[in-house]
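Try this one yourself first.
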């Protein structure tokens, strides 16, 4: 599938699906802090930031299974991660510049939207609250809602079913290769953004429909003929 850096379509999509971490929410400091805390508290060998970030978009249990083979310990580590993550969440996350405004404009334009994330529901709710965007998404699919997380298409398909929108008229925006693979398997248009943790080379290799390097380019694809709209008061 060819990749274009910016080729706005002439029509809008009937629905827009977004990943959360790395796409809407800059949570890399939070994620790294949480993993470091777990490694230190449980006496595990430290991992590099690159090793951790390479697995973004993967459920916690699957991440820890890379490093330990005891199922009980995997669950203990995941629970410790969540406890620390929620405790320090609001102080370590921030929106990516311009992304919240774009989401708000899509909402004002009446475009149905969903969150499709590998994050647990409580953390997802906190992330959307930190962004001030909880009211913009009529559907939120988290790791708690699926049996086969991304890169399986199940989360994307579940969001489409809940929105009542066919795959052919929807788009999925994400920053990880897992997002692209899940979207492609669900047969939606995929947009990979480069401001998350994945490298541009990794994203290109995953084969998204579009690759965008800034929010202006993303706006051009999602709202090609709609100017920036005022915030809802």
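Now uncover the answer:
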């Amino acid at each position: 599938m060819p990749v274009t850096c910016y080729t706005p379509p002439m029509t809008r999509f009937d629905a827009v699906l977004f990943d959360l971490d790395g796409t809407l929410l800059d949570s890399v400091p939070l994620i790294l802090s949480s993993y470091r805390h777990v490694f230190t508290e449980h006496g595990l060998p430290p991992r590099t930031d690159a090793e951790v970030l390479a697995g973004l978009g993967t459920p916690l249990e699957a991440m820890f299974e890379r490093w330990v083979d005891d199922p009980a310990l995997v669950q203990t580590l995941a629970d410790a991660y969540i406890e620390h993550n929620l405790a320090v969440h609001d102080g370590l996350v921030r929106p990516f510049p311009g992304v919240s405004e774009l989401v708000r404009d899509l909402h004002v334009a009446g475009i149905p939207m969903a969150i499709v994330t590998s994050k647990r529901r409580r953390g997802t709710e906190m992330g959307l609250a930190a962004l001030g965007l909880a009211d913009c998404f009529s559907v939120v699919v988290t790791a708690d809602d699926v049996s086969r997380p991304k890169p399986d298409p199940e989360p994307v398909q579940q969001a489409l079913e809940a929105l009542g929108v066919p795959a052919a008229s929807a788009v999925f925006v994400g920053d990880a290769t897992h997002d692209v693979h899940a979207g492609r398997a669900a047969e939606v248009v995929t947009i990979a953004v480069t401001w998350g943790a994945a490298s541009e080379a990794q994203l290109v290799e995953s084969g998204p429909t579009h690759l965008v390097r800034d929010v202006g380019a993303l706006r051009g694809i999602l709202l090609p003929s709609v100017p920036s709209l005022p915030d809802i008061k």
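Discussion: The longest strand covers residues 170-174. The mean pLDDT is 90.
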